[in-house]
Each structure stands twice: as C-alpha cells, then as structure tokens.
C-alpha cells in the first residue's frame, strides 16, 4: 500500500522476494525508488499516481529496479483507495515480475522482424498471408512487383481477384483453400491476372497455417512467375513437333518421289511405244485404242506429277508475283468452283509483298483448297480467301526462318476436323471423302508445292467450327525465275543414254521415227566409249540418274569439255530446280522432264513440228 503521496505503508512477502527489500527497509520510503533513474527524472512515478486518480486505475509495463540494482520487467497496476466519505486515503499497488515473458516476446519479435526482412527482401516470389476466409493480410515486395498491387491497395481484399474469370466461375479459389485446409498444402500451375489485367503463368503453393491447438489461423501463399519457362517449353514443343512433321514429310517425299520417278520411266516406255505405233498407220479401231491408251498414260502422268509435287520434285516456272493480282485474275474460276449455296469472299492485301511463285501451280493449289472447302459444306456456307503481310518469329510456323512472309488463307464454315484427322491431312492418299470422290493427293500436292516454293502450310480446324488452311510464302528478293531453253538447230545423230532397257528401246524408236540416227548406251562409261569412237554425234540425250558412278550430269560436263559442238539434253523425273540445288548451274544444257511425249522431244531437240 501507498499513502496519498506515494510513501510505502505496507509490504508483503512477494514484494520482498522479487524486489529484495525487507519490510523494515522499505516502509516509509517513496515508491519511486523502484523506478530507473531516467524515469524518475522524467516524472513517471508522479504520472502513475495522477493517472490512477484521474482514470480510477493505472496499468503499465516497464523496467523496475531491485535493491541490488538489477532490473526486471514488471507488470504494474495501481488503484486509488478512498474511505466511506470518498476521501483519498492511498493507493493499492500490485507488481508482477514478467521478465521471462518479456524476453520471450522480444525474441519472437526479433525473429518476426528478421523473417519480415527476409520475406520483404525477396522480389522473385510473391509471398503473402491469407486469413481463413481468403483475405490478404500481408504483402511482400515480390508480390507487388509480380502482381502490380501496392500493399495498401490489396490488404483486406479476397485473393480470388488474382484468378481469371473462367477460374473464378469454376470455383478454383475456393477449391484451392479447401485442398490446402484438408491436405495441408495446395500446389499447381495456371494463369493468374495482374492488376492491369494482363495474364502470367504462375507456380502456386498454398500452405495451411495452424496454431498450437491445431486451429486454422490462415494460409501462406507463395507464387512465382514462370511465364518465360512455359513459353520456352511451348517453343521447344512446337520446334519438336515441326521437326517431326518435317522429317515425316521428307521421308514420305523421298519415298513418293522415288516411286513416281520409276513410274515415270514406265509411262515413258508406254508413251513412246504408243507414239511409234501411231506413226506406223493402223485402222480406225486401232487408232481409237491407241488414243484411249494415250489418255490413260496422260492420266498416269498427271498422277505422277501430283506425287512429285508432294515430294517437292515438281518442275516449277518461278516468277515474281503479286499474290493479290494472281487471285483477282483467277477469281472467276474460284467462284464457279464454289458453286450454289457457297459464298466466296476475297479479302485481299492492298499492298502485298511480292513472292516468287509458279503462278499456274499456285492457282491450281487455290482451286484445290476451294474445292475441298466447298465439299466440307454440303449444306452451304462461306469461304473466305484472305491475303495479308505477316512477320514471323523464329520457329513460329514450322521450320520457317524469321522474317517477312505473305500469308494466303482459305477458311470455310464447314464441318471441321478432329485433331488426329487434321494431323494427317497432308499425308498422300489420306482422304476423308467417300470412295471414288477423292484421290487423297489434293492437300499433299498443295503442301509439296508450297514447301518447294520455300514456304509452309498450316491447318487449323475444330469439329463444327470449320477449317482454315494458311499458306506462308517467303517474300521475294531480286531473284528471277528459271528459264529452260535450247537454242540452235537439231543435228542428225543422237547418242541416247538410258539405264532402263525398256525406256532405252522405246525412246530410240521414237527418235528414229523422227528421222534421227540413234546410238545407244546403258551407262556413262559406255557413252564415253561411244563418244571417243564416233565423231559425227550431234546430240547427247542422257538420263541424269545412272548406277555406274558416272551420272548424266557428269557425262554432260565431260562431253561439253571434250566435244563443245555437241548439243546436250538432260532427261529426268526430278525437277530442274532440285537438280540445280544438288549439282549447281545447269544452264548450258537443255532439259526434258519425264515422262516425255513426242511433242516434248521435238521441242527439246529444236525441231519444227
């Protein structure tokens, strides 16, 4: 007890135990003796009594001093005491030594401060706490950097604001807390939304936080922006898919090209034989049969051309083109192909970049695409043919290099395709049409032509949503197209070099029917021997691909070096651009593409028909 002036009047055993004074030593002294010197000077003892009088109670924590001068952390309560008349008779003072609690609190506070500094120092991760209901209760610098909200803006808001609208509609925020609450942890990746509305791909971890009694007190949430990692993974996946597609198409192209090349040789035998027979004179029935057979050979030749187009071995007459102008010039044909209830809308680029194209084959590719689109809409619909200039990044479309391109797209509103069907759309002989209504070579021919032109083709299709086929064509430089001409007059003796015996015989008869003297050789070595023995040879007519180590191009170059007066014609089922890519400049030689007809030979040899 204290009197009204603060003088100690009574003293219990507890006071003696932790303050160190015996009752005889302390009664009669002012209670300010328990305060540190600094607080005595500051008037804290008087303030305590005055507060107790004014407010009816004084309660405080602070440092106090024992008899031996050591300090302890005390919890102090002072209450005024009054008699029955209300007169102040003194104060009741209760002091408790809570030093241990103070030390523990200070240690906890220091730990929390260090942890807060650590969390606030992390900028690559968003680290924040949620209340049990999901409201944000704290916020680090990383969260502000990644999500865009300042601390004052976000505290108290529900964390669902970070989710996309579709995820909120699907109940993902509530599901996240439910899983964390029941399993202790939630971890997932998905799209999240910044303050400005932009999205980022996030790796999210949510841990449930519980107190010592096991009661849920909130959630700790850690988020990392892994958008770059996701983009890199997607780019790698696209590159792998493009590489696989390119390898698959290359393998198919090599197989198809080889088959078509051999088939060309067989057709050439038949065609040349038929030409020889027709020159010998037959009755009308025989002539009609020969004409029928020639038409069949022509159809077979068209089939091989389609295969070679897919295999990128089709001879192209390349020229600098304005794609919009080509489409405008061909638009009437495309509209007739669309027919009936199908509408065709052309959306041209006003200033399309020039491209290098075989315009006739490009028109055929467009017609093919329009017919396919028409067939996909038996109940009617719309075809949109668009042209636009685009800039592609590295790996954006297949294996195409980054740079400027012209994109020509044919979009329909038809039935669309399943992903597994669209993935096979370019494969030769693959078709979804009824038996007898498609060869399965249409899209493969388009693919081969565009690939041979230096571009690529993409298909986007969904069932019930229609199909869009996009052709990407590289912008032309100053390169001009190929021109295969053979000036000069024909001569009388031809050295024919061909490793296929049937084709050698048929072509020899065809040349003889034109009045030529024909010398034959089945390989390059035999031809060199004939050239060394005969000095009246005017034309060397040689196949390019031969098995004995001296191919037709090596033979042609040796002949040009040793016998410059001899005219040379190269024959191959492979296109001239492909041969040039492998063997270099061939402009000194004429070229004829297999299978060739009588008229083709006349043109190549420079004779008038």
UniProtKB/TrEMBL annotation:
<dbReference type="InterPro" id="IPR011006">
    <property type="entry name" value="CheY-like_superfamily"/>
</dbReference>
<dbReference type="InterPro" id="IPR035965">
    <property type="entry name" value="PAS-like_dom_sf"/>
</dbReference>
<dbReference type="Pfam" id="PF00512">
    <property type="entry name" value="HisKA"/>
</dbReference>
<protein>
    <recommendedName>
        <fullName>histidine kinase</fullName>
        <ecNumber>2.7.13.3</ecNumber>
    </recommendedName>
</protein>
<dbReference type="InterPro" id="IPR000014">
    <property type="entry name" value="PAS"/>
</dbReference>
<dbReference type="InterPro" id="IPR003661">
    <property type="entry name" value="HisK_dim/P_dom"/>
</dbReference>
<dbReference type="InterPro" id="IPR036097">
    <property type="entry name" value="HisK_dim/P_sf"/>
</dbReference>
<feature type="domain" description="PAS">
    <location>
        <begin position="1"/>
        <end position="56"/>
    </location>
</feature>
<feature type="modified residue" description="4-aspartylphosphate">
    <location>
        <position position="543"/>
    </location>
</feature>
<dbReference type="InterPro" id="IPR001789">
    <property type="entry name" value="Sig_transdc_resp-reg_receiver"/>
</dbReference>
<dbReference type="InterPro" id="IPR005467">
    <property type="entry name" value="His_kinase_dom"/>
</dbReference>
<feature type="domain" description="PAC">
    <location>
        <begin position="58"/>
        <end position="110"/>
    </location>
</feature>
<dbReference type="InterPro" id="IPR004358">
    <property type="entry name" value="Sig_transdc_His_kin-like_C"/>
</dbReference>
<keyword id="KW-0418">Kinase</keyword>
<dbReference type="Pfam" id="PF00072">
    <property type="entry name" value="Response_reg"/>
</dbReference>
<dbReference type="GO" id="GO:0000155">
    <property type="term" value="F:phosphorelay sensor kinase activity"/>
</dbReference>
<feature type="domain" description="PAS">
    <location>
        <begin position="111"/>
        <end position="168"/>
    </location>
</feature>
<keyword id="KW-0597">Phosphoprotein</keyword>
<dbReference type="InterPro" id="IPR036890">
    <property type="entry name" value="HATPase_C_sf"/>
</dbReference>
<dbReference type="InterPro" id="IPR003594">
    <property type="entry name" value="HATPase_dom"/>
</dbReference>
<dbReference type="InterPro" id="IPR000700">
    <property type="entry name" value="PAS-assoc_C"/>
</dbReference>
<feature type="domain" description="PAC">
    <location>
        <begin position="186"/>
        <end position="238"/>
    </location>
</feature>
<feature type="domain" description="Histidine kinase">
    <location>
        <begin position="258"/>
        <end position="477"/>
    </location>
</feature>
<dbReference type="Pfam" id="PF02518">
    <property type="entry name" value="HATPase_c"/>
</dbReference>
<dbReference type="Pfam" id="PF13426">
    <property type="entry name" value="PAS_9"/>
</dbReference>
<keyword id="KW-0808">Transferase</keyword>
<dbReference type="InterPro" id="IPR001610">
    <property type="entry name" value="PAC"/>
</dbReference>
<feature type="domain" description="Response regulatory">
    <location>
        <begin position="493"/>
        <end position="609"/>
    </location>
</feature>
